[in-house]
Structure formats: structure tokens, C-alpha cells
């Protein structure tokens, strides 16, 4: 919940995507008032959480700024980690995979906190895919 002076610099940078400054300032005041009255534990802790809590109908400019903020990497660590994982995944054994499967493996290596996938769910998806030979008797 930054003060207007700090948000104003973002307004200047992304003015092509936003309404006039007076409208953005009014939305910002509404946004700050909404969160000032809530306990600290109920306030969003990240741009993504804030974006989920933002009403696009009431505050479209705040939502647009939050979308931009959520899309910007904080550091270069995440892209570097991703490319490091790609090089590990692109071994000679995996060179024969389709691009979709290689991308999926890379995403699993980068984002290890994915929802628990059960073996039944994997078998269900695998059983529905087309194969050259039918293994089911």
C-alpha cells in the first residue's frame, strides 16, 4: 500500500496503458482506504494476492498496475534458474521427446511445489492418449 508519490512514478512509466492521472489517483486513494481499515494479516502479501483481491470493475487502473507488477521478475534468478533446468533436462535421453513433454518436465523442475499428482491421474491421462501399439488386452 504505497503512498501516491511512489505509485506516481509507475504511472509515468506505464501511462500508455492507464487512464488520466486524476482517475488513477482516485482509484489509488480508494485502494489504500480499503486496505488501511483491514488488519495486517488480512492484507495481500504479494502482487498476485493483491490482484486477486482487486475489483476490475471498480479499479481497472489499479488492476492493470498490479498485472504489470506481477508480471515483472523481481530478480534475474528465476529466468536463470529456468534456463539452468532446461540444460539439465535436455540430455541425450530426453532429446527424442516431443517439445510439449520437454516443456512439461522443465516446468516441473522449476516449480516443484505443484499440486500432488496421483499415479491414478497419470494412468488415466496415459490411457486416453493415442499410441502406435495397443497394450490393453
UniProtKB/TrEMBL annotation:
Residues annotated as domain HAT C-terminal dimerisation: 54-108
UniProt xrefs under InterPro entries: HATC_C_dom, IFN-induced_PKR_regulator, RNaseH-like_sf
Highest taxon above the source species: Eukaryota
GO MF annotation: an example: protein dimerization activity
Pfam families xrefs: Dimer_Tnp_hAT
Protein name: Repressor of the inhibitor of the protein kinase
Species whose genome carries this gene: Amphibalanus amphitrite (Striped barnacle)
Lineage start: Eukaryota, Metazoa, Ecdysozoa, Arthropoda, Crustacea
